[in-house]
Amino acid sequence: MKLTPFPFPLNIGTDIVHLPRICRLIRRPASSNGNGGAKATTTTATYLDRFIRRILCEEELKDYYAKFSALQHHSASGAKTLTTVSPPGPAMNAANITEMARWLAGRFAAKEAARKAAPGGASTIGWKDVMVRIDRERNGSGSVKPEIVYLKDGGVRGEVGKLSISHDGDYVVATVLAATTRTTTQLPDG
């Protein structure tokens, strides 16, 4: 059978995230902090901190801290930390956790979908090599439309991909459409 290749140089990636998984990550207390195994209320090494630092690029970290600044406080050293358990600092009630989980799940699903849509696949691109960006300047309608940016040259330049994120109940789904270099592939007969 002779097959005609797909006529456009495009890749697509999709990912789904279960919100309760992200909520558990946010609520998970820090490991033992050397005080007899007692759970720390704040630390720079919480599971949440490690998660955001692993998947968010510098610009996304700024967005994250700006959006959730009410849930932050500063340690004696001045480092930003997040409260994972109520006192001290602002209480992280169920609404705070859900809002944070939805934001993080959207970023995680979008980045994973973008990695799947990358020309070489997810294994060829890191979490911090893609960024979810809200372009408020170009969008005159007042609504916010996220897009994916494939960062190149250490974030000096980038290539934009199309992004759709959908939140429904306990799930967040993201789909990314990205351009790729066109190659001619000989398809096997039969």
Q: The biggest beta sheet, please? A: 5 strands, antiparallel
Order of helices and strands: EHEHHEEHEEEE
Number of helices: 4
What form results from the Cα inertia axes?
globular
Looking at CATH, the homologous superfamily is 4'-phosphopantetheinyl transferase domain
Termini distance?
A: 5 Å
Number of strands: 8
Helix content: 25-40%
What would CATH call the class? Alpha Beta
The secondary structure category is alpha+beta
Keywords: Transferase
Protein name: 4'-phosphopantetheinyl transferase
Pfam families: ACPS (PF01648)
GO molecular function, one term: holo-[acyl-carrier-protein] synthase activity
Molecular structure report:
InterPro entries: 4-PPantetheinyl_Trfase_dom, 4-PPantetheinyl_Trfase_dom_sf, ACPS. Residues 12-175 form the 4'-phosphopantetheinyl transferase domain. This is 4'-phosphopantetheinyl transferase. One of its GO terms (molecular function) is holo-[acyl-carrier-protein] synthase activity. The protein is of the alpha+beta class. The chain has a single domain, classed as Alpha-Beta Complex (Ribosomal Protein L22, Chain A). Helix content is 27%, strand content 27%. The chain has 4 helices and 8 strands; from the N terminus they run βαβααββαββββ. It has a 5-stranded antiparallel beta sheet with strand order 1-8-7-6-5. It has a 3-stranded antiparallel beta sheet with strand order 2-4-3, with no helix packed on it. The radius of gyration is 20 Å and the shape is globular.
Outline the fold blueprint.
Elements lengths: L9 E9 H9 L14 E2 L3 H9 L2 H10 L4 E3 L5 E4 L10 H24 L12 E5 L11 E7 L4 E12 L2 E9 L11
Antiparallel strand pairs: 1-8, 2-4, 3-4, 5-6, 6-7, 7-8
Helix pairs in contact: 1-4
Protein name: 4'-phosphopantetheinyl transferase
Pfam family, one: ACPS
GO biological process, one term: fatty acid biosynthetic process
